[in-house]
């Protein structure tokens, strides 16, 4: 007799509550009904709560990833045996719980969801095996975890999201090699970390947002290089930190916001000078 989602009495009310919580009816990964009798873990059905399973709530056969995850959370020791399951969600979720010694076998899994999970747990000594993965999300996770000394290999990744993560973590000694990255968001990351004198290489960047970050970080004596910038936001940033001589050059700026910033900065400078001479 098939146990077609026929819960035992002690779980019936709980299962109904779980279904009403999600409003997603249980079905297997191929779109059909869940047959508990055919499940290799049918012996878990009579067991109470986390010792067992609960169709519609914690079930490895379900198409719904949250229910699969709950099943493996209750029974992490069963994950190792599901790494070849035909449903990618089962393999991906099992990868969260298996021993790290089993993860190497999933590096070439055909589904990127599985490989993404592997990239988050694979020992660092093996992580470079995924550095050339065909999917950007896998490579982004590799860039997030790869030892800093090995990140240089991803500087020219075809995806800007990977290069952004690299720019956030690359050792400062190598970071100047990314100042000419073709993507604005990557160069923004570079500008936020770059040390002097390499930061000067971005003073003439084509994007105002990058130059604005440079204006935030450039030493005050060098801010004059941006005082005539074509974008008012850059000049406004210069005004926030300018010394009196530079403020003089900005006092007649064509933009009202910049002139207001100059006025406010002069008041601050006046207070500081008053304190110093008081």
Which key features would you list for this structure?
mainly alpha, 278 residues, single chain
Poorly predicted regions are 1-21
Report how far apart the termini are.
Answer: 94 Å
Outline: elongated
Give the beta-strand count. 0
By DSSP (H or I, 4+ residues per run), the number of helices equals 11
What does this entry look like structurally?
It is built from 11 helices and no strands. With 278 residues, the protein is mainly α. The longest helix is centred in the C-terminal third of the chain and has 22 residues, at 256-277. The radius of gyration is 29 Å and the shape is elongated. Residues 1-21 have low confidence and may be disordered.
Secondary structure elements and pairings:
Blueprint: H1 9-22, H2 65-74, H3 88-94, H4 112-121, H5 136-145, H6 160-169, H7 184-193, H8 208-217, H9 232-241, H10 244-250, H11 256-277
Helix pairs in contact: 2-3, 3-4, 4-5, 5-6, 6-7, 7-8, 8-9, 9-11
Quick rundown:
The chain has helices at residues 9-22, 65-74, 88-94, 112-121, 136-145, 160-169, 184-193, 208-217, 232-241, 244-250, 256-277. By secondary structure, the chain is an all-alpha fold.
